[in-house]
Specification:
The complex is a heterodimer.
Chain A (H helix, E strand, L loop, with lengths): L2 H17 L8 H11 L7 H13 L4 E4 L3 E4 L5
Chain B lengths: L7 H5 L8 H9 L3 H16 L4 E3 L12 E2 L1 E3 L12 E5 L9 H14 L3 E4 L6 E6 L1 H13 L15 E2 L13 H11 L1 H5 L9 E4 L8 H4 L2 E7 L4 E2 L1 H10 L2 H4 L9 E4 L2 E4 L9 H5 L4 E2 L4 E7 L13 E7 L1 H6 L3 H17 L6 H8 L1 H8 L25
Parallel strand pairs in B: 7-8, 8-9
Antiparallel strand pairs in B: 1-3, 2-4, 4-6, 5-6, 9-14, 10-13, 11-12, 14-15
The chains are: A mainly alpha, B alpha+beta.
Bound molecules: protoporphyrin IX containing FE (HEM) and iron/sulfur cluster (2 copies).
One iron/sulfur cluster (SF4) binds next to loops of chain B.
Chain lengths: ~80, ~400
Amino acid sequence: MTDETKKKVEDKIVGLVKEYAGKKRFKPIDIVKEMEKEFASEGLTKDDIKAALKEIMDEEKLVYGYAGGSFLALPENQ
Amino acid sequence: MGKKHQTPLLDELKKGKWISFVREIERAAEKSERTEDLLGQVEESYRDKVNHWKHGGMAGVKSYGAGMVGRFSEFPDKYPGIKECHSMRIIPSAGFFYNSDFLRKLADISEKYAGGLLNFHGATGNIQVLGMSQAEAEDVFQAVAELGFDLGGSGSDLRTPSCCAGQARCEFANYDTMKICHDLTEEYLDELHRPAFNYKFKLKFSGCANDCVASAARSDLAFIGTWKDKIKINQDEVKNYVKKLNVQKYVLDKCPTKCMWFEGEKLVIDDENCVKCMHCINVLPKALRSGDEKGASILIGAKAPLVTGPRMGMMLVPFYDINEDAKNDYEWLKGLISNMWEFWDEYGVSRERIGELIGRVGLNTFLEGIGLEPIPEMVGHPRSNPFIKFTEDED
Ligand code: HEM
Ligand code: SF4
Ligand code: SF4
């Protein structure tokens, strides 16, 4: 996965969480599945998506929330 | 020191000669105001017969989505010290061995940042530092990391794998439980720290069927040490036991498959029918030993009662040659686990454990999905399925 595609995946995930903030809670497993479909044509695998998600978390663009199960949240909302 | 809260019900639990968790919490409370408040709330829980924690809420460390369990008091005004009372899970050493230096330092961390309470290996197998607030979490994490330890699993992820003391302490161990537990924990750290499953997934390793980590009842994938060849019999020792013990009554009659008998003074075992339950070896350890072809049985699908009721593990792989696979860095096993997780990701629903998924889609579908051939040992209850279809060349 090139840095460029990685950035695209990251932006897409963060964008989704921002767009639906307060309306929908994205579980990591659902996001990974959705992105897998979305970027399949670019040859990305589940591991690539997971790596992108890991980077998002390490850079604290998103954080994990928890309410009976984990979900992705914006840092400022936690 | 006067008690901050009256605790008549908890005081009952200090009576008797056994160690009491109440006494230990009281000792910690001498140094920690927040732990004093903990005593007050626990007293109310005993009175009301419910716990007074609110679950969930934010508790965690940077970039990980697991390792901390958030607990908030229902009565923050009455018990301000435990307004937040989170626990941090720490991966134990395989087999639970520590030196005194580590224990002392961990105790210091707990006193400095949390309630002075530690839980050594609750049902999850983790070490837990109890009673911290979110503001202290990063400091505790840093301090623990400096001791060379990392956070364990929680939420919808791989939970901290755990194992019995195995070959380090126990002559019954049929494989190195600590090695596989340690190696797979290292391999799957991301799966532990970054929840991306439908629900929890547990790996537990017991060296024999005594199953000291209760893997058959508590883990989605259980590894139970076993052997393929014959039980080794020392007939002289058998004779010694016969002198002091009713071997017929306590051993032979209790063998689940009744595959042992005496021919004169000689003990005979029909190993073909032995299910490696360990009973006879437990009672006659000097006379009986497991065989030389050692490995593990892999069971799948056990879980506690939550959501759909408890399940015991089902036989998936009767004999896994763990020692051989260890030479290849567990390549075969990792492939199997990866196939399972793929299938579970694809077809499982939220909060569905893998055993429940198998129950829902059927074992055949699951086996096809993960690429294992069905074999008779997988049948848990004979004749439970009237819809088996035979093809022409079978009967
Ligand atoms: C008055 C009408 C019916 C009665 C009394 C009846 C009764 C039964 C019974 C007793 C069974 C066995 C259940 C078991 O093994 O526990 C069964 C199975 C079955 N029935 Fe019916 N049935 C009726 C109508 C139908 C109709 C209209 C269809 C299809 C359109 C149908 C399709 C099936 C199928 C596919 C099974 C096998 C289910 C399985 O594999 O578990 N039945 N039925
Ligand atoms: S499970 Fe078996 S091998 Fe492991 S500690 Fe218990 S008795 Fe020993
Ligand atoms: S291990 Fe269990 S099944 Fe096998 S001979 Fe001993 S008691 Fe019987």
